[in-house]
Design goal:
The structure holds 2 protein chains of 2 kinds. By secondary structure, chain A is an all-beta fold. Chain A contains no helices and 11 strands. In chain B, strands 2, 4, 5, 6, 9, 10 and 11 form a 7-stranded mixed sheet that branches. A 4-stranded antiparallel sheet of chain B has the order 1-3-8-7, with no helix packed on it. In chain B, about 40% of the residues are buried. The chains are: A mainly beta, B mainly beta.
Chain lengths: ~120, ~100
């Protein structure tokens, strides 16, 4: 059974760096083709993809946020991390991690974590 | 980036009614995926690669489309279908539609 679980600081102040952890089980990020993304959702709003990391450590970022994002992984501990620098109130959201699945050279998210809520406030 | 436009933003349906939600892409995409998000929960994969039902999804859900126009149909709406529905593509990098809220009358 594939599961993912996000964890984060809950609340932080503007200009700080947000550090998030995605702990997963049921698959390995050392397996060819595997990948995990971070996606966020402000309360009452839609979904925004942030970043993706592949099994081979290749990384992709949302162009509009790329300068502030860093995604990384620890394959041995089954964790994926995301750092967002210089946060402000617009970064207040629920942050999800999700596993990428592939079908006919196309990709989608087949399993999502429950999400962790992050509030940026002074 | 490819922008996905979903319509309607809000749909109100009666039990047993057949409804169709649409998703229009700003450029042609190969496939579209759909997620269902019930209040207070994370998105759940509903349909992948345009028309394939995810595991455990009832057969009243179906998807179709090609190019820039895709749709999600519920053949007979049930109370448990009340949720937000999002389309998603991953041609260049992932983007999501703005969502359709389905309310049950």
């Amino acid at each position: 059974q594939v599961t993912l679980k996000e964890s984060g600081p809950g609340i932080l102040q503007p200009s700080q760096t947000l550090s998030l952890t995605c702990s997963f089980s049921g698959f390995s990020l050392s397996t060819s083709g595997m990948g995990v993304s971070w996606i966020r959702q402000p309360s009452g709003k839609g979904l925004e993809w942030l970043a993706h990391i592949y099994w081979d450590d290749d990384k992709r970022y949302n162009p509009s946020l790329k300068s502030r994002l860093t995604i990384s992984k620890d394959t041995s501990s089954n964790q994926v991390f995301l750092k967002i620098t210089s946060v402000d109130t617009a970064d207040t959201a629920t942050y999800y991690c999700a596993r990428r699945e592939v079908y006919d050279y196309d990709w989608y998210f087949d399993v999502w974590g429950a999400g962790t809520t992050v509030t940026v406030s002074s | 980036q490819i922008v996905l436009t979903q319509s309607p933003a809000i749909m109100s349906a009666s039990l047993g009614e057949e409804i169709t939600l649409t998703c229009s892409a700003s450029s042609s995409v190969s496939y579209m995926h759909w997620y269902q998000q019930k209040s207070g929960t994370s998105p759940k994969l509903l349909i992948y690669s345009t028309s394939n039902l995810a595991s455990g999804v009832p057969s009243r859900f179906s998807g179709s489309g090609s190019g820039t126009f895709y749709s999600l149909t519920i053949s007979s709406v049930e109370a448990e279908d009340a949720a937000d529905y999002y389309c998603h593509q991953w041609s260049s990098y992932p983007t999501f539609g703005s969502g359709t809220k389905l309310e049950i009358k």
